[in-house]
Amino acid sequence: MIRLIILAVIAYFAWRYYGWYGAAGVVGAYVVLVVTLGMINANRTRSGAQRLIGQKLSEAEKAHLSATHEHHQVMHDRMAQFNPELRRPRE
Question: What is the DSSP letter of 19?
């Protein structure tokens, strides 16, 4: 939300000094920057996940991950009691 307020202020000043083309340029540059940074973050996250998937896990790590997954399922089931959107069958 703060980023959008900052963008609006910068776009306003660009509009004041350079007209609509300046404001459109500022908004366009912001969109390009957000998309680029999002793609970089997605690639970094994906490579980290692939590295984690590729490594061999010890028995203790496997037990921890299965317990964590089971806890996540139990919490999801509890939340589904109060939220109809979560009652859809999981894949």
Answer: -
CA angle 51, 53, 59 (to 5 degrees): 120
Strands (E), 16-85: none
- The set of residues, in sequence order, having a beta carbon less than 8 Å from that of 3 and lying 6+ positions away, is none
C-alpha–C-alpha distance, residues 62 and 89, integer Å: 26
Q: Is the dihedral of CA 87, 79, 46, 65 positive or negative?
A: negative
**Tokens (6 digits) for 61:** 């790590």
Q: If we measure between CA atoms, which residue out of 63, 66, 72, 67 comes closest to residue 90?
A: 72
pLDDT score recorded for residue 82? 85
pTM for the full predicted model: 0.52
> Environment class of residue 27 by beta-carbon count within 10 Å: exposed (0-12), middle (13-18) or buried (19+)?
middle
* Distance separating alpha carbons of residues 91 and 74, to the nearest angstrom: 15
